[in-house]
Amino acid sequence: MKVQSTTQFDLNTYIQSKQRADKPALVTGTIPELSHNNDTVEISPASRQLAASDIVNHAATYFGTVQINDSLNRLLTDQPSEVKEAVYGIIQSNFITNVTGEEDRSALLELGLTQAKYIADNYMKGDKATEFMNTIRQIAAISTTRTVDPETKEIHYEIPPQRPVGAPDDYVDLTYMMKKFEPKTLDKLQDAIVNGKDWNSILQSFAKNVSTQQDWLKEYKEDVAKPIGNIDGENRFEKASTTSLSEFVKNIKDIIAHDGLGGLLADNIEAFMRTLASPKSIR
């Protein structure tokens, strides 16, 4: 088996948070000396994610996984700007939010899924609509894994192992492995990258270790197959009509009023409506 690995760092976000301008890049290539029982470890270029269980600051933009980003980029490429803004508005206002109350978070998630369905029904067709909803549901599921560090107040989300588009099925996310099995090594690696130290030796040493750890690889495969988060259950907004924007918003507002959900949900649907309510965008 060929074990292919990558470090998944959002260097821009991480380095900007440290107020640094330098952006070191990792080099693509195999490392022959790391071969073990015909296994090799390949270090791919750094991509957008920091790591599994990525730390997301209150003002940060949520990037999701490589696969999620690729899906959204492809599906939204030819869409009007209002639709793109509405989609990322759903992600930031309904899923990856600063709202702390569990009831409010649950209601926002349900509303976000329903808003996404409106977009799928009115702006996409066939396989694209199906893929869009699957991608949105992945993000929503990730949002349910939210935890807050009681000391630092940093918000964490559980991110599944990532496989770049086009990578083979036996691809291994090296940073996920580091985060899971040697978190202190990940801290050292991040510190070395940000401060211009010898990060390459840290990475190669860990990669060599991974190629010898069959138990780690077995557990990694189990993690890849395991679903992240849970969004199963009833959605109080799912029967809202998506025939037109005006009818959709009216149905949502009627449900909000009936259930006494308060101003947060009303403000949210108003913002969604304003985003889409330009002459070229209304369907």
Please tell me about this protein's structure.
The protein is α/β, with parallel strands linked by helices. It has 2 domains: 1-54 and 159-231, no CATH class; 65-144 and 239-283, no CATH class. Helices cover 52% and strands 7% of the residues. The chain has a 4-stranded mixed sheet with strand order 2-3-1-7. A 3-stranded antiparallel sheet has the order 4-6-5, with no helix packed on it. β5 and β6 (155-156) form a beta hairpin. The longest helix is centred in the middle third of the chain and has 22 residues, at 102-123. It is elongated and about 60 Å long. Residues 1-62 have low confidence and may be disordered.
Low-confidence stretches: 1-62
Give a quick account of the main beta sheet: strands, pairing sense, barrel closure.
Answer: 4 strands, mixed
Task: Measure the end-to-end span.
Answer: 51 Å
* Strand elements, count: 7
The side-by-side strand order for the widest beta sheet comes to 2-3-1-7
Summarize the structure.
The chain is α/β, with parallel strands linked by helices and 283 residues long.
SSE blueprint:
Blueprint: E1 3-6, H1 11-17, E2 29-30, E3 41-44, E4 55-56, H2 66-76, H3 81-95, H4 102-123, H5 126-143, E5 147-148, E6 155-156, E7 171-173, H6 174-181, H7 183-194, H8 199-210, H9 214-225, H10 245-259, H11 263-276
Parallel strand pairs: 1-3, 1-7
Antiparallel strand pairs: 2-3, 4-6, 5-6
Helix pairs in contact: 2-5, 3-4, 3-11, 4-5, 4-11, 6-7, 7-8, 10-11
